[in-house]
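As the work plan foresaw, the team has encoded backbone shapes as discrete tokens. One protein thus recorded appears below exactly as we store it.

:::
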Amino acid sequence: MRLHVGCAMWTLKSWQGRFLPHPLPAQERLRHYAGWCNAVEGNTTFYATPARDTVASWTQQTDPDFRFVVKLPKLITHEGRLTGVDEPLQAFLTAIEPLGPRAEALWIQLPGSFAPTDVPVLARFLRRLPTSHRYAVEVRHPAFFDDPRSARLLEDVLGTAAAEWIPFDTTAFFQSPPTSDAEREAWTRKPRMPLRTHALTDRPIVRYLGRDDTARTVAGWQHWVDTTAGWLREGRSPTMFIHTPDNADAPALARRFHDEVRARVPGLAALPEPVPVEPLTLF
């Protein structure tokens, strides 16, 4: 029984001197982030396949129980739409091989235009993937949430492949108008996704978007505290990623979420204590 928590990235300028020492070489930032959280979203791989040596450095900076949810490149999911992508897919799989079991799942985020009529394409793609990895799919077309038949169709395909459905919960964020510049920017970019709390596998993965106000973020995740505690009692090992529009407090919020779940499930092991960070000075 284990709960992994993390953020959308492992370094952010506003974290310097708070969660990460400053100055700190780029190749050391993941190591210090891993003192706060035990998982991270691999969003950078969406834009380009990393060098294998770069991925190997990620393993050197993290403990064996740290987990990455690594996003497939957009060349595969958005440009190729899962068809005719054997070459970039193999290059990606080769690049991330050093992660080994640290790769909790390979994340197949599909564009909003990927509709129920495209599910057979996803089914063919999943059948061709190596069984050495777990897979998790994020869809954004409204029909998968509004139409029960479309949802069942997708669930059947994912179930056959033992793949998970990643919900991106933005309901708390869109409950009321934005109040900060970061929220106003996110208001135009983030998808308005319905709430989905059903897990398909023993390794559910959730992405949650709160607000820049901590109290509202915490209030909005209470149903996830209940759901996550329930999953743990069932013997599942979930992963929760905490987002806010500015992500300024995301590492601390991720730890707070873990603490709230642990209060419900006392057998859950605590996160390790982060290395103290010296405060920034003027000189």
